[in-house]
Write a structure and sequence with these properties.
The protein is mainly α. It has seven helices and no strands.
Length: 139
């Protein structure tokens, strides 16, 4: 085992995943719920039940910070940021458990590059924020 810094693991994984997600980010509205969520964030409205009010409020604040970008791009970036941070936090956890930086890097990248996670990281979906909240609870 090689000793590694949890902070270094976080930065390496979150940055790598962030770059990958940015390169594959949906350029506009995608199918299913993404358009509904983007519209609800833009209008501060209520999407389908249960409404995900916390996600809409966080998304609205994010949208106002990135006012120069189109709504769909800004909200897609929110999903990418949430998932990249979740992957970085997963790497911190693995570093703490194993004290092995390469293992934490591999675990964080594996976590963030699985098909379901990646797809939800590149479009406006509540699952990215939900994943971040779940990893934060483990942290």
């Amino acid at each position: 085992m090689r000793a590694g810094s949890p902070r270094r693991a976080f930065v390496l994984v979150a940055t790598t995943l962030g770059v990958v997600y940015l390169a594959s980010l949906a350029p506009s509205v995608t199918l299913w719920d993404a358009g509904e969520f983007a519209s609800a964030i833009e209008s501060l409205g209520i999407p389908h039940p249960p409404g995900t009010p916390l996600f809409i409020l966080v998304g609205r604040a994010w949208r106002l910070l990135l006012d120069l970008l189109p709504t769909a791009v800004a909200t897609n970036l929110l999903a990418a940021a949430c998932t990249a941070v979740a992957g970085g936090l997963a790497a911190i956890l693995v570093t703490r458990w194993t004290r092995d930086l390469p293992a934490a890097f591999a675990a964080g990248l594996g976590f963030g590059s699985s098909a379901t996670v990646w797809l939800n990281a590149t479009e406006t979906e509540v699952y990215s924020a939900s994943l971040l909240m779940s990893v934060l609870m483990l942290y």
